[in-house]
Design goal:
Largest sheet: 6 strands, parallel
Strand order of the largest sheet: 3-2-1-4-5-6
Shape: globular
Structural class: alpha/beta
Order of helices and strands: HEHHEHEHEHEHE
Distance between the termini: 35 Å
Length: 174
């Protein structure tokens, strides 16, 4: 993805960091998802989802550096207590800068958000992507991961049994 205007100073600095390491984009969407109306329709990727995905990524890529994008950056910080290999992307970056930064990462942990989906989809680096096996509350819409995600993406379920791939260790090297 090539923006029509140059990145701002903050985004340019983050892009340089992303390009200089084994970068993993982590998208944590909370903001509007926490409202009663939205929460009744959409599933919220909670700490357990991120803990599982982060654990698998850390096993596969011990040198990884995580870049966290969130509409609630302070709340997202609680998912990464005392982790030195994390950069919280400043919310001052514009949405188009964030998409550019996300798509520049090597690997992805996305949430049930089209914004994070596009960040991973637009990447040309061919890395790993973990995606949630659930987007909606069950009483609203039936979600079909196989028609939403590219085949190479790894689908992580939740503790309520919606795993598509229960044997997550198969993604790790022997």
């Amino acid at each position: 993805i090539q923006p029509v205007k140059p990145l701002g100073d903050v985004a340019a600095k983050v892009l340089s960091e992303i390009n200089g390491c084994n970068s993993i984009c982590v998208n944590v969407r909370l903001g509007d998802y926490l409202s009663n109306k939205i929460r009744d329709a959409y599933f919220i990727c909670d700490e357990s989802y991120y803990e599982r995905a982060l654990g698998l990524m850390r096993k596969k890529f011990p040198d990884a550096h995580f870049f966290v994008f969130s509409d609630e950056i302070e709340r997202a910080r609680t998912f990464f207590p005392n982790d030195r290999n994390v950069t919280f992307v400043p919310p001052t970056c514009t949405p188009w800068e964030q998409i550019k930064l996300m798509s520049s990462c090597r690997h992805f942990i996305i949430c049930n958000s089209t914004f994070s989906w596009w960040g991973a989809w637009l990447s040309e680096k061919g890395g790993w992507t973990f995606a949630p096996g659930k987007w909606y509350q069950e009483h609203t819409v039936t979600f079909h991961p196989e028609s939403t995600y590219p085949e190479a993406w790894k689908i992580l379920g939740f503790t309520d049994g919606c795993d598509k791939n229960k044997d997550h260790e198969k993604y790790l090297p022997a």
